[in-house]
Amino acid sequence: MNENEQDQQMVWLFVLDRPYKVPAGLTIQDAMEYAGYKLTRGVGCRGGFCGACATVYRIEGQYQLKADLACQKVVEDGMHIVTIPFTPANKKQYDIDAPDMKADAGILLSYYPMVARCVSCNRCNNICPQELEVMEAMNAILQGDVERTARLMFDCIQCGLCSMRCPGEIPQFHIAQLARRLWGKYGESPDQMLTKRLGEITAGKFDEEYDTIMGAGREELQAMYDTRELKLA
Amino acid sequence: MEEMFFYPGCGLKSGAEGYYTSIRSVFAKLDVNVRELPDWNCCGAVYPLSTDNLIQRGAPIRNLVKARSQGAEVLYVACSMCYNVLKRAEQFAQTRQEEMKRVNELFEEYDDYSGGVEIRHISELLLERLQVVDILGTPQEKKVAPYYGCTLVRPAEFAVPPRILEDILKTVGYTTITFRNTDRCCGAYHSINRPDITRTRVTEILTDAVNEGTEALILSCPLCEYNLAAFNMVDLPILWLTQAVGLVLGVSDLGLEYNRSVIEPFTREASHHE
Lengths: 233, 274
Description:
Shape of chain B: globular
Strand order of the largest sheet of chain A: 2-1-5-3-4
Mean pLDDT of chain A: 94
CATH architecture of the domain at 105-187 in chain A: Orthogonal Bundle
Low-confidence stretches of chain A: none
Mean pLDDT of chain B: 94
CATH superfamily of the domain at 105-187 in chain A: Alpha-helical ferredoxin
Structural class of chain B: alpha/beta
Distance between the termini of chain A: 47 Å
Order of helices and strands of chain B: EHHEHEHHEHEHEHHEHEHH
Oligomer: heterodimer
Largest interface: A-B, 16 and 18 residues
Helix content of chain B: 40-55%
CATH topology of the largest domain in chain B: Rossmann fold
Number of helices of chain B: 12
Strand order of the largest sheet of chain B: 2-1-3-4
Strand content of chain B: 5-15%
Number of domains of chain B: 2
Largest sheet of chain A: 5 strands, mixed
Shape of chain A: flat
CATH architecture of the largest domain in chain B: 3-Layer(aba) Sandwich
CATH class of the largest domain in chain B: Alpha Beta
Number of strands of chain B: 8
Radius of gyration of chain A: 23 Å
Distance between the termini of chain B: 30 Å
Structural class of chain A: alpha+beta
């Protein structure tokens, strides 16, 4: 036992069934690195946004398999974990610019007909680390409402845990991505701010500033960074 | 204004929009507000007959659980298939306590369900309201035939009242025809893998109706409508129940533009008030 461990509360963590004693309060990801793992897969942004670190766990003495993101979930004593770097769910190839593409639920059903196998068991909602209404999003497709699917699944990070749990073999996260793309491209009206800014860029509004930054040396760049104007909300 | 808790089902949102539009308009005319059950999900489409695969009970019973959590005592359904599935699921919930213990585990966010929401078809409320509200259609010669299909009348213990569609149509002024194939299966999902079966069935049903003098077929099932319209070789006008009622009551906004069959000149003549 090193000095750290005397001061700090430690918990037991089981990674692929090997026991490790790690400081309480660490995230699963930090705890794995503390235990000596060098993470090359199943790790990404470390900020809960990329969905690369889906992790399935069970607490000693409990029977339920639970899941969360390794970069967000804090370790608990007796936690058995396995990381799921990605979910090899069936992802269809499509050309979003193809002439027959439109914001229509029929397109989603033609690529992913298994949506109709949803039995509304709610397992997807229960496991989603983003707490999204995945089941409702799939039902919205059956109801012809692509916009609802796109909006309900806006915060999906593609971890794939929903499809791992789904008894209907539905790749919800891929379907939601197609729904967002279809709605974004063919359903939603163009964003005014974006259109304005693209116009400014095309007209060369930022060219001079851009050239200045690209032409600056390291010290000059550092000085620019240190004296930059901070716009605090 | 009376309120009806309403379960539309997927069909009324994609394909049978004319049915939903006309339900809203006609019930508004009859002083009934249609309140859609929030966050409803697919009913399951086909009532599961296996007794040990309980997860298939989840979809219909989840809707019942949601309806109860909204305070609904009666949930009205328009689609014949949804009606069939939900009504049978409600009976399952009331009578199969052992299985329901396990089904209820699917609904951890709600209290356990053991029944309590009565499932009725909209035709039942439609007839009741037509009998109390003092508006009558123009008596006319137009001959229409209701087509029940399977799921509105089978199995018998879940059937709507006998000849209720005829009663509704007669009440608003139509002459009705009850033809031999009125409750014969349209071919259902065979239209996907064996369209020849569905085509044969539909042709027999429609030809029979036309031979009896039918000028329009009236129905309430989106799957039947899909099949009948797809193989409608005789160009018989096919209308939703509430569209037929709305036409003679002078209701506008019946969603007729969604219909897949040629419905002119029937609709123009039926709605012609002298």
